[in-house]
């Protein structure tokens, strides 16, 4: 089923192929690439590289949300992301840029700097978040997370992880629509690795197709270099998880996930082109 995701002035067609969201962490402590792109010039250069490799969107974040990560101040987060977003939006005007944050003040600054999507791991629960997105006419990704980054992986438990995550996302989508955000501006993310153990993550990945159908909005999945891949492939270092990530991304593409959030854009572009050609009505372009 083809859908158009409206994000500011951008119209993002979803459903005909798997779109790639390139990860750009402007942080000193992200689990996989912390400190590599903390300088604005380096971050912008990396963003341009991801775009050149085939990223359909760029997701810029200034606060690590890895398990056990401590929060940073809004001022620090703004100082990290706003100069990068401003330059990327100016140099890549046709490429949607997302701000990965759950703080309203950061989101407002990022949207003013040129971001057109809010990727909120908090699911829009902070007061004022929906209003900020609505007023900017931005797109929004609502993600499920159990607990907080500092504690989410200590002992996550569910009676029915697929049912509970789906219901949470359904409720947050309804709340966003009630707050005045049009349905066509919304996207959902089951939050792989955010308060889930290995079996929880695998169950959610098996349910990608059904969750997309149930929720009725584009579905984003973010398996890239996650800990569950390290467990399955015996690769403690996140940078060694390319093949495992490719397997997870291929599965998501075959299950018709609309978007995958990835570090290794060039390799994953090759993966999804092959899978899309097999699994969808028409090959990727």
Write the layout of secondary structure elements.
Layout: E1 3-7, E2 10-14, E3 19-25, H1 40-53, E4 57-61, H2 74-91, E5 97-100, H3 104-113, E6 117-120, H4 129-136, E7 139-143, H5 161-178, E8 186-189, H6 198-206, H7 208-215, E9 220-221, H8 227-233, H9 242-254, E10 259-262, H10 265-279
Parallel strand pairs: 3-4, 3-10, 4-5, 5-6, 6-7, 7-8, 9-10
Antiparallel strand pairs: 1-2
Helix pairs in contact: 1-2, 2-3, 3-4, 9-10
Order of helices and strands: EEEHEHEHEHEHEHHEHHEH
- Overall form: globular
The portion of residues assigned to helices is 40-55%
Low-pLDDT residue spans: none
Strand content: 15-25%
Strand order of the largest sheet: 8-7-6-5-4-3-10-9
The number of helices is 10
Radius of gyration: 17 Å
Biggest sheet overview: 8 strands, parallel
Please tally the β strands and state the result. Answer: 10
Mean pLDDT: 92
Walk me through what this model shows.
By secondary structure, the chain is an alpha/beta fold. The chain is built from ten helices and ten strands. Strands 8-7-6-5-4-3-10-9 form an eight-stranded parallel beta sheet. The protein has a two-stranded antiparallel sheet with strand order 1-2. Helix 2 packs parallel to helix 3.
Give me a quick take on this structure:
By secondary structure, this protein is of the alpha/beta class.
Task: Describe this protein with a few key phrases.
alpha/beta; eight-stranded parallel beta sheet; two-stranded antiparallel sheet; 10 helices
């Amino acid at each position: 089923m083809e859908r158009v995701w409206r994000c500011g002035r951008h119209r993002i067609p979803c459903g005909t192929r798997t779109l790639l969201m390139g990860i750009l962490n402007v942080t000193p402590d992200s689990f996989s690439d912390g400190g590599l792109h903390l300088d604005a010039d380096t971050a912008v250069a990396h963003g341009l590289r991801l775009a050149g490799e085939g990223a359909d969107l760029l997701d810029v974040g200034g606060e690590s949300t890895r398990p056990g990560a401590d929060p940073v101040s809004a001022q620090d987060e703004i100082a990290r992301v706003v100069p990068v977003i401003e330059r990327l939006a100016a140099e890549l005007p046709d490429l949607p840029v997302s701000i990965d944050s759950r703080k309203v003040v950061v989101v407002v600054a990022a949207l003013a700097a040129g971001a057109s999507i809010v990727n909120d791991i908090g699911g829009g629960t902070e007061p004022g978040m929906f209003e900020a997105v609505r007023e900017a006419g931005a797109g929004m990704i609502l993600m499920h997370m159990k607990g907080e980054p500092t504690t989410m992986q200590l002992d996550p438990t569910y009676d029915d992880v697929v049912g509970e995550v789906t219901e949470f996302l359904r409720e947050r989508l309804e709340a966003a629509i009630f707050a005045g955000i049009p349905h066509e501006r919304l996207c959902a993310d089951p939050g792989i690795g955010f308060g889930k153990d290995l079996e929880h993550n695998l169950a959610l990945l098996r349910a990608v197709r059904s969750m997309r159908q149930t929720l009725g909005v584009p579905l984003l999945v973010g398996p890239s270099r996650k800990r569950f891949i390290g467990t399955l492939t015996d690769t403690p270092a996140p940078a060694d998880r390319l093949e495992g990530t490719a397997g997870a991304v291929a599965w998501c593409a075959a299950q018709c996930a609309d978007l995958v959030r990835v570090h290794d854009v060039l390799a994953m572009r090759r993966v999804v082109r092959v899978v899309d050609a097999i699994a969808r009505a028409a090959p990727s372009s």
